[in-house]
Amino acid sequence: MPQMSPLSWWMLFIYFLILLLTFSVMNYYIFFYPPQKSETSEIKIKSMNWKW
Known about the structure:
52 residues, mitochondrion, proton transmembrane transporter activity
């Protein structure tokens, strides 16, 4: 079985790295997350009232 030269290993590494980055970016941008409702994101001030 012939051995691969170091340059071929480097090109193979670059190829898979580009594939990984491409799929990661696609996975990030393909989903649309709806914005949260304002009711859940509000901070309730009454519950933060400290009684010392």
